[in-house]
Structure formats: C-alpha cells, structure tokens
Amino acid sequence: MNRAILLTAPGAAAIAVVRITGPGVRAFLARRFSRAVAPLRCVHGDVRDAGGEVLDDAVVVLAEDGRWADLNLHGGPWVVESVLALLERNGFAVVRPDGADPAPADAFDAAPADAFDAAPSDAFDARATLEREVLCHLPLARTEAAIRVLLAQPAAWQRFVASGPGARAIAAVLADASLRHLLRPPRVAIVGPPNVGKSTLANQLFGQQRSITADLPGTTRDWVGEIANLDGLPVMLMDTPGLRATDDAIERTAIERSREVIESAELIVEVRDPSTAGHPRAFARGLLVLNKADLSPSAPPAEGAAAIATVATTGQGVGALRRAIRAWFGCDDLAPDRPRWWTRRQRDVLLRASIDFQALAEL
Q1: Distance between CA 85 and CA 81 in Å, rounded?
Q2: Residue 280 — very low, low, confident or very high, per pLDDT cuts 50/70/90?
Q3: DSSP letters along 204-257, please?
Q4: C-beta neighbour count of 56 within 10 angstroms
Q5: Which of 34, 99, 230, 263 has the fewest CB atoms within 10 Å, measured from its CB?
Q6: Distance between CA atoms of residues 23 and 122, nearest Å
Q7: What's the whole-number mean pLDDT along residues 113-130?
Q8: How confident is the model at residue 302 (pLDDT cuts 50, 70, 90)?
C-alpha cells in the first residue's frame, strides 16, 4: 500500500518532511518531480501537480532500496497541505499527525500522544517496535528537551530491562507521565480578576508579547491560547479575560466563553493582587500567584496555599512559576536517560510487567 506521513510537527516551520512509502514511490516521483532521483542522493527540483503548476521546490532523498523517499518541503502550511493533497490524488493514504482531517490554520490543540500508535511500521526505517514508536512520535516533539528525551528512550529501556527491575521500580516508571506531557502539551489557564497583571505574566511565560497589556481593567476581551516553552515543557498557555461582573456585552460574552476554557484546563494558575492574599481562593485546584509583589512584599499567602510571589513587569518570580508548572506535570527533571512511557501499548506492557517481569520483553 502507498502511504504518506508528515514526519515534522504540524504548523508553520522552515522545513517540513513528508515520507512516502510503497510500490508507487518511484512512479509518483517520475510523474510529479521535475528531476530524476537517485538512491541516497539529495536531489533538488520542483513538485508539480497534474496541471504542471509548481507546488514547491523541494529536496528529495530516495532510500537505497527505493521503498521510501523523503520530500523535504518548505514548511508553510499551504505548501504541506497542497503536497499531501497531491499525494492523496495519486493514490497515497495520508497518515496525518492528528489522525484526522487537517486542522484550520488557527487551531491550537496539540495532536494526541497516541495519534501514531497505529501508524504503519513500513513507513519508518526501524526494526524494533519501540524504535518505530520513537520515530513516529517525533512530529509531536515541540521542544529540544522533548526530542532528546524521546530519542533516548530505546537505550534507556534497554538499560532498565537489563537491570532486572522489581515491582517498585516498574511502578515508579508507570507513575511517570512526563513524556506524555512533552508530546501532548497540557493546557494551563491563567485566571483572576481584572488588572492583576495576568497578560503581562503570560507574556513573560511566552517569552515575548502575545497578549495586549494596559492599566485599564478588561483589556483582554477573549482568551488567548498558544504554545509556550517552559524550559523544555511545552504547554498550551491560555490567558483569559478578568473575571468580574460587567455591563459590557462583549466583555461579558468573553468571560462566559473563557469559563469553558478554564474548565478544560489541566492546571489553573490563579493570579491575585497582594492586597487580597488573605482571602479564600476562587479555584480550589492549581497554583496561586501573588503578582505585583513589589507593592506589598509582606502580604500573607491565601488560606491553605503557598503563593508564588511575582512582579510580572520585571520578570521577578517568573522562574519560580515556570519551575512550579513543570513540577505540577512531573517534568521538573527532564534527564533523557530515564525510561518513560508515552503510548498505551507501553503502559499496558508495564502493567503486565508489574505482575510478571517477563512481560518487559514485549517492549
């Protein structure tokens, strides 16, 4: 069967790589690529549709046995989707990173970590099941740390199995979902009343300005969601409008919509003014941040909570908040040499191995 799979992460990028496999590889390149290809050679030419229109100037690398080829494209979403559509029209079954139809350009949701569990093994030049799982999940690795941890897993698992781990060691690996979070960015909502510095704090976490900030309450009229790299952990950071009663119809609608975003979040970062530090928290779960700590440095924490003091305008305390978010998802230690699971198959093997060590041979 002819198949095509996007090997690089979805979204805009400098380069996108589409691997094509199957008996139709050479015929497709002969019809749709402007130059003759040779095994193990980088060949630069044009990818053309049936009408002769150039979709992209690409670099094609054909495998030594001709079973597959990599199309190295410019990474614009239009280019990638156009080439994938061309492949579909030419008989290639497209395996998409999200396991579904292409997402709209403004979609923010990350691909599920099990999206490639059923990806065809012949699409990847790997022998062992674990190695194939590493390769087919690489498109979901959005940070350097995620790539390093994922690529280190075959060797880490080999060492782990060779050590003859007991039930306690296996249970510790089962409890570690950090690689799942590295491949499926968790949702983190920044919430709180107006004018406490939520958007300024969000911009500090993004590392650049994403939300408009001003001293006027209600500046953020809708939630803003984008991936933020928190020292290796990618999170879908969602800056929400200030929660308050308002007569402004637009702001009121935005606040109501943001409540759905907050409910779907895996972590809530509640931002408060130091003057309200002693008040009960509005949200029972998540982290508490007392921003503008420079205005009231001696303010006590809220009831039953250890607060993180920040000054978003200067970045003070933002490092501590980053560490707290990583720790919340078990990603405070991203050493690549530890074995981690990231697919349902691996988790099921570990569950069986907790009863019968020999099950680890299935990895």
Answers
A1: 6
A2: confident
A3: HHHTS--S---SSTT---S-EEEEEEETTEEEEEEE-------S-HHHHHHHHH
A4: 21
A5: 263
A6: 12
A7: 56
A8: low
